[in-house]
Amino acid sequence: MTSFAYRADQVRALEQAVMAVEGPNVLMQRAAHGLARSALDLLRQIRGSVYGARVVILAGTGNNAGDALYAGARLARRGVRVTAVLCLGRTHEAGLAALLAAGGVLRSAEEAGLVNLGAVPRPPIDLFVDGILGIGGRAGLTAPLTDFVAVTGRWSIPLLAVDLPSGVDTDTGAVPGPAIQATRTVTFGVLKPCHLVEPARSRCGEIELVDIGLDDADPNELPVLQGLSDDVLAQAWPYPPADGDKYARGVVGIDTGSDTYPGAAVLSTYGAVYAGAGMVRFLGSERPAQIIGAQLPSVVFSPGRVQANLFGSGWGDRADGRDVLLRAAEEGLPAVVDADGLRYLPDRCPEEWLLTPHAGELARLLDVPRSKVEADPLRAVRAGAEQTGATVLLKGATQLVARPDRDTVFVARPGPAWTAQAGSGDVLAGVCAALLAAVHRPQYAGQLGASIQAAAAEAHPGAVPPQELARAIGSLLGDLQRRRDELVRRRW
C-alpha cells in the first residue's frame, strides 16, 4: 500500500477535528489500546509470556506520556509489573492516576537507577516504553537522559517508542543530538516524516501504524510525503505491452561520460539497458563508446528517434555543456540531467526534466551549505524544484522526489547502505532515463527508479558492484511482474 506522512501541525489539526466530535479523551484511549497490544506482542516474543514481565515507562510531560501511562495501566491489569519513571519532573496526571490505580508504581529517575549509570550492569527489565517526548518535542535529549541513551544499547533491552523515538525531529527526520533507538515504534493515525526520512527512520526500528480514527477527519489535508510499498512498485512499473515494440518500451538517448571519465557512461548505459529500455542510443565520446560496444552489443551508436535523453554523468569540464542542454530544452524531449550536467542547466528547465543531484550538488544549485540540505532535505528538495522548474530527485540515505507544482514529496523505497558507492548514481540515472522514456512523468521515473535500485540491493546484499546491481534489476523486474500478476488475480 502507499504510505503517506503528515507534519506535526497537520496531525494536530486532524486530531482536533476528531476530538471536536468525539470528545477530548477518545484518541488517547485508542492510542493506549494499540500501544498496549503492541507491548504485549513484544513481551511474548521476548520471554514467551506476559504475566510477571517487568516494564519501565519513561514518562515525559505531554500526551505521549499519557498514551504510555494508560497503556501501562492495561498492562498492569494483565499481570505485568509496570514502573513509571519521571524523566522531566512531572507527567500526565490522569494517565499516571490510571496506572497507579491498576497497580503500577512511580519512581523518579534517581530512584529507578537510570542516572549516573556508568558501568551499571543490565537491570532486570524486559521492556522500556519511551513516552518522553512527542511530536511537539524539541529534537535532541538533554542530561540526564543522554546518559541513559548511551548505555541502553549495551544493555540490549528492547524499547517500544510511543509515536516516535524521543530526540528525533518530527518534520525533518533529523537527529541533531542524542536520541532514543527503538526496537519498535508505534505511531497513531498517520505517519510523520521522521518515519520515512533518515536518519530518524532507522531510530524507529520496526514501525507499526495504529488506526485511531483520523482517516476521515480532513480528507483535503495533503500529505507532506508519499512513499510506496513493494506491492505498489510491482503494480506501477511500466511493463512492456504484449503487442508493443521497442518504441512502446521507450528509446533512450545517452550523452554521458568522457574520455577522462568513461566509467560513468558505461554504468549509466547499464542502468538504462537493464531497466528495460526498448533501445539505447549512446551519443557520447569515443572511448566510452568502445567499452560499451564490447560489453553491451544491443546499444546503438548513431543518432535517431528517442523518447527521453540522459545527460551529464561523467562529463567533467565540458566547454559545450550549456549549449548541449539549451538545445535539448528547445527540442522539448523529457530528459534526466545528472552529476556534472547540473553545472550547465538553463536558467529555467523544462517541466519534463528530472534532475538527480546528491546533497552536495543540490547545495551548489541552491547556493547554500551542504549541511543545510542535509539538516532539512524536504525543504531543500522542494526549493530545488521551485528554483529550477524541473522535478528533482535528491539522492542519499532517503531519496526524495519533488515537483515544482506539488507540495507532496515522493519518497523512494528504502534500501541498504551498500548502495552508497561510486557509480551507483550513474546506474540510477540510466534507470530513471529508461523509465522517463516509458512513462514521460519525471516524478514517477525518479521514485520508481530509486526504489527498484534499492530493492535490487536488498535482494543482493553486500559489496556488489553497481554494474552487477544493474543486472540484478533486470532479473528483479521479472519477479515484480509475476508479483503484479498475482495481485491482479487476488483482486478477481
Structural overview:
It is a single chain. Helices cover 42% and strands 14% of the residues. With 492 residues, it is an alpha/beta fold. The chain has two domains: 4-223, Rossmann fold; 230-491, Ribokinase (UDP-N-acetylmuramoyl-L-alanine:D-glutamate ligase), CATH 3.40.1190.20. Strands 1-9-17-16-15-14-13-12-10-11 form a ten-stranded mixed sheet. It has a seven-stranded parallel sheet with strand order 4-3-2-5-6-7-8, covered by helices on one side. Helix 11 links the parallel strand 12 (308-311) and strand 13. Helix 7 crosses helix 17 and helix 16 crosses helix 17 (466-491). The chain is elongated and about 80 Å long. The relative contact order is 0.10.
CATH level 4 superfamily of the largest domain: Ribokinase
Sequence stretches where pLDDT stays below 50 over 5 or more residues = none
Q: Provide the CATH topology of the largest domain.
A: UDP-N-acetylmuramoyl-L-alanine:D-glutamate ligase
Radius of gyration from the alpha-carbon trace, in angstroms = 26 Å
Reading side by side through the largest sheet, how are the strands ordered?
1-9-17-16-15-14-13-12-10-11
Structural class: alpha/beta
The overall pLDDT, averaged over residues, is: 93
Q: What is the tally of helical segments?
A: 17
Biggest sheet architecture:
10 strands, mixed
